[in-house]
Amino acid sequence: MTSREIGPLNGHGQRHITHKIAASRKGNFSARSIQQQFWDIDEAQGQKVAKEANTLGGQTIAIKTDVTDVDSVAGMVEKTLGEFGQIDVLVNCAGWVMDRLFIEKPRAEWEKEININLWGVINCTRAVLDHMVDRKCGKIITIGSDAGKIGEYREAVYAACKGGVMALSKSLARELGRHGINVNVVCPSLTIPESEEYISEASMWGGELMEVFTPEAREKATKAYPLRRLGKPEDVANATVFLASDAACFVTGQTISVNGGYTMM
Prior knowledge:
alpha/beta; Rossmann fold
C-alpha cells in the first residue's frame, strides 16, 4: 500500500462510519506517514474523530465544513493543500435521511436530503478535481446506499440521491480515467451507531430514527440479511480503505455493496 496518503474525509450525519474509516486508514497504511483532514459541519465531533485517529499515528486534523456550501468546500480544499501540499484521496461520507413516507414528508426534508446526499458529493468532488487532474492521479470514494439500487420504503428522495451518486461516479470514472483518477462507490447495509458518543444534534441518528431501532427491531432486521447480522462501521471502513489503496488501482466505476447479502446485484 502507499506509504503516504493525504485525503479529506467528510462525514456529516454518519460519524460512526467516518470514525472507523479514519482509524482503518491509519491501520492499513503506514501510520507515521498518513495525513488526513476530516471535514464536518459539527466541529466538536470532528475534533473527537481527529483525536482518536491521531492516537494511531500520522496526522489527522478536523476543520468545520458545510458540504452543501460551495465556498465552504473550496476553502477547505485550499486549506488542505496549504497544510499537506497534495490530495491523494477524497472520501465522500456525509449523509442524511429522515424515514418518512414520500407524501408525508415536508419539502424542507427533501431539499436537505438532496443538498447533503447529492450536492454535497458534487461539491466536494468538483473541488478536488483540478488538483487531481494536474497530478494525474487520485482516488474518489463515495459512501452510497443500496437504496439507490433497489429503492427503499420511506426513503424515496434519499434513494434517488444515492442512485444519482452511483450514476455520477460511473460517468466520472469514464471521464477521469485518462487522468489516472479512480472513482468508486461503497454501499453499506443498515449500520447503526455503536455508541451515542458519535451522535450529535446534526446527525440523522440524533432524533426519532434511533428510537425506531429498538433491540427488538434490530433483531427483526437481521432476518433480512443472509449473514444474519447488521452492518458494522468497520465493514464499510475496510472496503473504503481497499479502494483507497494501490491494491485497487485497476478498479474504477464500480459500486461495491458491503451489505451481508441484503441485495445481490
